[in-house]
Inverse folding.
């Protein structure tokens, strides 16, 4: 297998994850960094920009990830497909879209999806019971975050020998590395 084909296959899997609800790359783990700690959570891949090598995710502007990315835009997305035994670790930085730029994405959400960004009190607030919250339809804390990949670490496990490569997006430098 050619190195460029190996890297392109990983990128195609990320792209597919943003459009195919059954793709294992649909739900990457997002790691953010604050002070001396790392936070991780599963997010939903919403749209992949092939030219920019970036991925859109949605969040609530009162969420922990929003605050962490606003304070430190450096982050990592980890994709894993057990069937393909492929792992892709994407280091990058986040950019928060303006409310105006996020508006078309908001318009495409169903009413049920919109409720996720209208919960009162905001995410991670202490409540009396598991259902002690409401939906305030007058609120809209919907936010779109674009994560621009800076480099990829791609690993495929195989009984015939593992394969691993690095790809620096900015310099376009590609290299096979020891698995």
């Amino acid at each position: 297998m050619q190195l460029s084909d190996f890297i392109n296959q990983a990128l195609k899997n990320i792209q597919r994850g943003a459009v195919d609800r059954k793709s294992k790359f649909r739900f990457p783990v997002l790691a953010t960094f604050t002070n001396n700690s790392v936070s991780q959570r599963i997010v939903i891949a919403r749209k992949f920009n092939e030219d920019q090598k970036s991925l859109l995710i949605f969040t609530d502007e009162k969420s922990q990830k929003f605050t962490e990315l606003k304070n430190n835009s450096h982050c990592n997305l980890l994709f894993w497909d057990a069937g393909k035994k492929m792992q892709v670790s994407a280091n990058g930085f986040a950019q928060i879209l303006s409310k105006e730029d996020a508006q078309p994405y908001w318009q495409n959400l169903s009413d049920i999806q919109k409720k996720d960004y209208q919960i009162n009190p905001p995410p991670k607030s202490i409540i009396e019971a598991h259902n002690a919250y409401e939906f305030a339809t007058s609120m809209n804390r919907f936010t779109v975050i674009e994560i621009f990949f800076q480099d990829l670490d791609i690993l495929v496990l195989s009984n015939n020998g593992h394969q691993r490569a690095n790809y620096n997006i900015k310099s376009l430098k590609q290299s096979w590395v020891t698995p």
